Amino acid sequence: MFGVRSLTGVIFFAAFVLLAHSKLFDTIRYPFIFRTITIPVFQWILVLVYLAVWRYALREKQGAGLIRAVVIGVLMSLVFPLLATQKMVWQGTPLSRVYEVLIGFYVFMVFAILVVAGIEIIRKKNEFFYPVAYLSLYGMVFYCRHGHGLHALALAGLAAVIILLNLFNRRSVDTFVSQGMLFVRRRMSMTVILAGIFMVALCGQLLFLGNLLSIEGPNYPRASDDGDTYDIWGVRGVGDPGIYLRESPHVWMVFYAVFLTAIYKVFGHSYFAAGAAQSVLGALVCVMIALLAYKLTKSRFVALWAGIGVAINPAFIQLQTTLGTEALYMPLLVLAILMLKYYQEARSNGLAIFFICAAGLVFGLTSIIREVACGLVPLVMCWILIGGRTACRSIWSRGRDAALVCVFVLLPIAPITYINYHNTGKFVLIYQTERSLWQYVSPYGEDVVPSNTPLVRLGMKDPMTDPAGAVALAVRKPGEVIRSYASIIPKRIRNIFFWPSFGYFDPLYLINNSRLANPFASCLEFYVLICFAAGAVFFLRANIPASGKILVLLVVIYYVILHGIVYISQSPRYSSPLIPFMDIVVAAGLYGMFKKLAKGAS
């Protein structure tokens, strides 16, 4: 019967389609903000209004209805940007096959989920005018119109399978979700989960690497920032390993180049060998993140989601398979945090000292690869002093552990500092860069990548090397410093999470080597941030010790402060260390959401 719910569905669908194709918000100066944020929010509002009617009819619980509304709103707002991008691919835009497969996979999965949701809604109330069902049909028509009948047939087949399942089994989707969680909890051991995550991650990275090499061939080093520089140093080291001792003070690429030299020495000048070795390290990162998630939440479901989330993250895959310091930096950073987690759980002093020394040593190695990790050490020491170790209440023991971290961080760094001093007569901790990032000005413009130019004009030097001068300037000219920072910080924090929104699908540079501009990238990044924000709410409310929560968020907070306040963030590389730790928060949020859905189903 055509009633209020049906009319609401028709109005919603019409508004959704018109708004998705509207150019209204592009007339404003910052179309990214209004098209990427305002339109999805408006779509969510429409979904919420519609679901309010639905929930009233079904007497459904508020929490479960809200979750459904958000999920459907996200999927619906992704439909048209995805279709626009896929049409560009079909029209002959030169892209790598990996990109084409990704776009095709995303489009099909979004439609498939909407088909399932549409059938579920129809089955519950026998209503045929719901917007989800409309979009399911729209997907099939879209594929047929563009000559991709097999895609339309696959969607129709999926719909038929779901209908048959509902005929023979009256369980709802929510019940299937709860059964899936139960299966993971009862039947999948952590060993199976970790092995599965490792294989998924390794296969994904090796496939990407193989495709990248087939596209670029000898130009492979250019697949990443400064990759050709790393490669040149790696080759030079094979012929003359002593160059790493003579070239001092050391420069930023040297210690990663030592890794490349070792690979080239064993396997020859093989890009596949270098990428494969990094892929193994990347797969281990996914395993370590899953283990860390399990130790925090005691949930195998969260561990599985967190590990797989990192394994399929496009930015992570690209950074682990191309030449770059992140390929070593991220594995070492995650290992250091995992060692701190083992330290936190240690019951005996002997084990605690072992893990805290191991954590310090790994932090030292991490700082050698990228000196920026040194800034994390004071935060880690504060975490230990405040109460990082669960079984230790003695301030003296915590002070000892904090001191041990500092000592073991300096152990691998001290020889490098000595060599730098011996060769130059100057104190250089690890290496020096050609130019301070504090004074760096991006060629993309201040609106896109805001620099510290206003602060430099006021007379502020690098606050990391001259903190006293920075404080003195802030005291002398507080109003001007506050106004300068107020214009810089919001844009930088935006860049940490939204960098790909400025036109391209980046960070996959070679997956999109034609620099195809598309709205899907910005929408996807927007929802990544939304998922993180929602996950953070569940994560902070979860029954996890506060010190454990702080440990995971330590890296996230550090990088937001570092690139939001101090240094310019000009590419996704700068915020890449956040990826693994944000995935733990997102996984915890998804787990909390599914638990609520499962509770509603029962």
Highlighted features:
602 residues; mainly alpha; 24 helices; 0% strand
Question: What can you see in these coordinates?
Answer:
The protein is mainly alpha-helical and 602 residues long. The protein is built from 24 helices and no strands. Helix 5 packs antiparallel against helix 6, helix 9 (227-239) packs across helix 11 and helix 15 (326-345) packs antiparallel against helix 16. It is globular and about 80 Å long.
Relative helix content: over 70%
Protein structure class: mainly alpha
Unreliable sequence segments:
500-514
Strand tally is: 0
Rg for CA atoms? 26 Å
Beta strand %: under 5%
Quick check: average pLDDT? Answer: 76
Whole-Å distance between the termini?
29 Å
SSE string, helices as H and strands as E? HHHHHHHHHHHHHHHHHHHHHHHH
Number of helices: 24
For the sheet with most strands, the description reads: none
**Principal-axis shape:** globular
Layout of strands and helices, then pairs:
Layout (H helix, E strand, L loop, with lengths): L3 H17 L10 H28 L3 H29 L6 H29 L5 H15 L3 H20 L4 H15 L2 H27 L10 H13 L3 H4 L7 H14 L3 H27 L2 H12 L2 H8 L4 H20 L3 H21 L6 H12 L7 H30 L28 H6 L8 H10 L1 H21 L20 H23 L4 H21 L11 H24 L1
Helix pairs in contact: 1-2, 1-5, 2-3, 2-22, 3-4, 3-22, 4-5, 4-6, 5-6, 7-24, 8-12, 8-13, 8-14, 9-11, 12-13, 12-14, 12-15, 12-24, 13-24, 15-16, 16-18, 17-18, 17-23, 20-21, 21-23, 22-24, 23-24
